[in-house]
């Protein structure tokens, strides 16, 4: 589909030239080798003085070998976002590698400053993207089947935004260029996979002090046409998200995505965001060729650092939310080694780990620590595992948390097995939690009376 679109565009250009009587043939520039973006020296065949001139050259050229670009100047690109389109010469060998050289791209326009539109095998590293737009700022968008791209240490700074628009984000793999939350709806084409096999790694995402944060920090979306069978295998790893308004990480119909070892908080601000908050959200996550994995993340300081039950505006809180996570015998749906700590809500409920209708899922080695609420009538859940099939809930901890209402440290309801001999509930710890009303340290309920749960070596002590 990318090749077809490319040829159609070039044939339109060919027809124009013939119609004007200028030429019966058209040649297009080739690009390979080393280039710079440097405003301090004159433009040449290997130096571009602006990001825009480089993007224009890239979009008009056919790549014939590896291309490396070294950025030597921090540049203000104004209102005009940089878009890199698909290039039919791109491959695992013919790559585009951009080294930002610790420079800064400043953008004043709406939505993303840097946009990959069907571009493949692009890597960008070592730079800051600053967006000063105050209405609908964004950082980076990948759309229209942008595959095998990588962003390493490309920080996004939204400087000046203080609103609640849903069209705000740091990074978005999305079918839309105006929101991080748009999934595709077809197997191929512009409304197919927004992007697959992409990596966003070791990036810092932040706002000015006291800002509300973008509505969604990062979106990693699939599509409704083939999400049960076709992998995106996108990765968010080792990033620091210091502020967001509603969603920390949003994934709609993902398959094989990994969210690994990220630090997610609102430590960048001293005021609350949305009254309802989802830190990591995945709707219908599947695992085809690798596990859908949410592992090793540290979620903390929500709705802001130092919040108490008297100062918080957070009412209903979801730490990790998975709706119908589905693995298989080889590749499970995995939630492992995460910690949710120092989060405070008021009158609503908490679902620190919300796992709804999981199949072939491992919920292991996670921790809830110092998550407090003040409601006297609502019910709080640290681990809410509803209608599980073939799951392991092992090695998790609930500790040092308080609620004035009702608390289920573990709520595992209507477990059944299809391929496992048993579901497992083993080696979990519930300690030093306090509730005013009643508390169930472990509520493990069966679907049928045969081969439902194996419960071993759980430790429950000093709760009150």
Report on this structure:
With 464 residues, the protein is mainly β. The protein is 6% helix and 45% strand. The chain has two helices and 40 strands. The protein has a 27-stranded parallel sheet that branches. Strands 5, 7, 9, 11, 14, 17, 20, 23, 26, 29, 33, 37 and 38 form a 13-stranded parallel sheet that branches. The longest helix has 19 residues, at 2-20.
List the helices and strands and how they pair.
Elements (H helix, E strand, L loop, with lengths): L1 H19 L9 E8 L9 E2 L2 H10 L1 E10 L3 E4 L3 E4 L10 E12 L6 E4 L4 E10 L8 E4 L6 E9 L10 E5 L25 E3 L2 E4 L8 E5 L14 E3 L2 E2 L5 E6 L5 E3 L2 E3 L10 E8 L8 E4 L2 E5 L13 E8 L9 E4 L2 E7 L4 E7 L2 E6 L2 E7 L5 E8 L2 E6 L2 E3 L2 E2 L2 E10 L7 E4 L2 E3 L2 E2 L3 E2 L2 E4 L6 E4 L2 E3 L3
Parallel strand pairs: 1-2, 1-3, 3-6, 4-6, 5-7, 6-8, 7-9, 8-10, 9-11, 10-12, 10-13, 11-14, 12-15, 13-16, 14-17, 15-18, 16-19, 17-20, 18-21, 19-22, 20-23, 21-24, 22-25, 23-26, 24-27, 25-28, 26-29, 27-30, 28-31, 28-32, 29-33, 30-34, 31-35, 32-36, 33-37, 33-38, 34-39, 35-40
């Amino acid at each position: 589909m990318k090749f077809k679109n490319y040829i159609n565009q070039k044939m339109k250009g060919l027809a124009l030239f013939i119609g004007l009587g200028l030429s019966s043939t058209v040649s297009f520039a080739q690009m390979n080798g080393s280039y710079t973006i440097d405003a301090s020296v004159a433009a040449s065949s290997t130096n571009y003085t602006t990001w825009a001139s480089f993007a224009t050259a890239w979009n008009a050229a056919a790549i014939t070998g590896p291309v490396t670009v070294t950025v030597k100047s921090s540049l203000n690109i104004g209102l005009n976002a940089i878009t890199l389109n698909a290039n039919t010469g791109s491959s695992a060998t013919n790559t585009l590698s951009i080294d930002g050289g610790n420079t800064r791209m400043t953008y004043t326009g709406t939505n993303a400053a840097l946009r990959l539109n069907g571009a493949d095998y692009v890597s960008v590293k070592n730079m800051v993207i600053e967006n000063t737009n105050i209405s609908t700022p964004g950082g980076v968008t990948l759309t229209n089947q942008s595959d095998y791209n990588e962003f390493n240490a490309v920080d996004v700074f939204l400087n000046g935004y203080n609103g609640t628009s849903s069209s705000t984000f740091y990074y978005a793999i999305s079918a839309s260029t105006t929101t991080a939350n748009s999934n595709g709806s077809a197997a191929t084409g512009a409304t197919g996979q927004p992007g697959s096999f992409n990596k966003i790694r070791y990036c810092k995402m932040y706002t000015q002090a006291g800002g509300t944060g973008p509505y969604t920090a990062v979106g990693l979306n699939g599509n409704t046409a083939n999400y049960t069978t076709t992998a995106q295998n996108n990765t968010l790893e080792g990033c620091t998200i210091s502020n967001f308004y509603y969603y920390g990480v949003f994934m709609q119909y993902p398959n094989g995505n990994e969210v690994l070892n990220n630090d997610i908080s609102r430590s960048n601000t001293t005021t609350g965001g949305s009254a309802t908050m989802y830190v990591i959200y995945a709707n219908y996550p599947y695992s085809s060729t690798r596990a859908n994995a949410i592992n090793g993340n540290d979620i903390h300081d929500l709705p802001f650092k130092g919040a108490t039950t008297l100062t918080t505006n957070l009412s209903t809180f979801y730490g990790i939310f998975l709706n119908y996570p589905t693995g298989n015998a080889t590749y499970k749906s995995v939630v492992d080694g995460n910690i949710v700590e120092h989060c405070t809500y008021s009158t609503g409920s908490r679902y620190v780990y919300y796992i709804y209708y999981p199949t072939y899922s491992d919920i292991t080695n996670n921790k809830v620590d110092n998550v407090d609420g003040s409601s006297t009538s609502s019910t709080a859940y640290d681990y809410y595992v509803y209608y599980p099939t073939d799951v392991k809930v092992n090695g998790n901890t609930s500790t040092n948390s308080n609620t004035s209402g009702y608390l289920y440290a573990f709520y595992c309801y209507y477990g059944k097995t299809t391929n496992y001999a048993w579901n497992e509930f083993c080696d979990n710890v519930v300690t030093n939690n306090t509730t005013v009303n009643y508390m169930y340290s472990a509520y493990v309920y069966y679907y049928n009376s045969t081969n439902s749960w194996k419960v071993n070596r759980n430790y429950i002590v000093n709760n009150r």
